[in-house]
Amino acid sequence: MNKFDNENGQEKINEKKQIIKNIINLKKEKNAIILAHNYQPREIQEIADFIGDSLELCIIAEKTDADIIVFCGVDFMAETAKILNPAKKVLLPEIMDTECPMAHQLPPEIIIEAKKENPDAKVVIYVNTLASAKALADATCTSANADKVVNLFDEKTILFGPDNNLAYFVEKRSDKTIIPIPKGGHCYVHKMYTLEDVKKVKAEYPNSELLIHPESSPEVQDVADHIMSTGGMVKHVLNSPVDTFIIGTECDMISRLNIELEKVGKSKKLVPLRADAICNPMKHITLEKIETCLINEKYEVNLDEEIIKKAKVAIDKMLSLNK
């Protein structure tokens, strides 16, 4: 590395430090908070006020007294924050390419048609859906509480979407008949995982525990040591006596786990089940975009009032489990 490269590298470090300083000042000036999902890059997680999974961030969004919520995640997450805080300004630092592909697999018309075919069924949909879909649900859920939400209802038949693998996970843990909607609904990241992946990494780390997200395929769930949400993974890794974990979810979950381990002075071996398990829409938010977002107060999330009202009923049903 020559002198020019050293100087250029230091300049970039100084620029990054200045951007972070500006973000901190803007947050204070505007009474704003930054929420970041576990799949955000580490540098975004490090400047967030709160990091979490979908359920944890829903709870925080509902309780915040901030005037502005900057959501570092994908589109449905920012919409959920707006539903829970209709009077607050909710900002998504980037609107291009931050759509969750799975959320868009369940448009309202599919739910409407399924309800016609199953009029006695309750509708439970993953929080990973758009607000227009949530407005048609009896309850929302996350991967952390899906089985508990389904069991809130007396009805034996549940329309559940959009993730078919999470539907499999739920049906195994309830006495309900789960009808997945749409057929084939999935997360493209978790669908990557195969039994061959498990065999390969387990052979390299035979004394490890395999932690699998319930959006993964049934055959991969069935060989996991633990199936859990990302929030569940944080608690388990921090408290388990095991030293090595294979992480079967989006790669930046390892960033979150390392941050939490560093806070308590622990060090553990964290191995991705696949190094290419990357949610591309999560990576389009940058420090520069957060700074610009706070300066210009855009891109603001706006939703129809009637959709907010109906969707909030479904979300509140889920959140009642935590009250």
Automatic annotation (TrEMBL):
E.C. numbers: 2.5.1.72
Function: Catalyzes the condensation of iminoaspartate with dihydroxyacetone phosphate to form quinolinate.
Keyword Electron transport carried by entry: no
Full protein name: Quinolinate synthase
Family, per entry: Belongs to the quinolinate synthase family. Type 2 subfamily.
Primary localization class, coarse: cytoplasm
Highest taxon above the source species: Archaea
Binding site for [4Fe-4S] cluster: 100, 187, 279
The entry's keywords: 4Fe-4S, Cytoplasm, Iron, Iron-sulfur, Metal-binding, Pyridine nucleotide biosynthesis, Transferase
Enzyme class: transferase
SUPFAM superfamilies assigned: NadA-like
UniProt-recorded Gene Ontology molecular function terms: 4 iron, 4 sulfur cluster binding; metal ion binding; quinolinate synthetase A activity
Cofactors that this protein relies on: [4Fe-4S] cluster
HAMAP family: NadA_type2 (MF_00568)
Pathway: Cofactor biosynthesis; NAD(+) biosynthesis; quinolinate from iminoaspartate: step 1/1
Catalytic activity: iminosuccinate + dihydroxyacetone phosphate = quinolinate + phosphate + 2 H2O + H(+)
